[in-house]
Amino acid sequence: MTYEARMVTRFTGLWSLYIVTDSQWVSDWPAFDFARASAPNWAERMEALASLGYEPVNPEADWEWLELSEPDDYRVRLLARFPVQPLTSGAES
After folding, report:
1. Domain extents for the chain?
2. Could you write out the DSSP letters of every residue in the chain?
């Protein structure tokens, strides 16, 4: 089964990664908090995904980057999307 990993900057400026699963409750989605303002690099994103029990569907694929903003807000949030699947090795980091 394929899911979508999303990495976002919160309005605090810190980065988080979460997996959108079949659950209707956001609180059930696996999440990883990088707790820093600089964007995580590729290796750090892969480590975070593995720690949540996921891996890329296609390791050669690029993350899709989007800018999000509110009409009455000067701040812009970044969101990155990437297709993932449960680890096939059965071993989580």
Report:
1. 3-86
2. --EEEEEEE-TTS-EEEEEE-S-S-GGGS-EEE--SSSPP-HHHHHHHHHHTTEEESSTTPPPEEEEEE-TT---EEEEEEEEEEE-SSS---
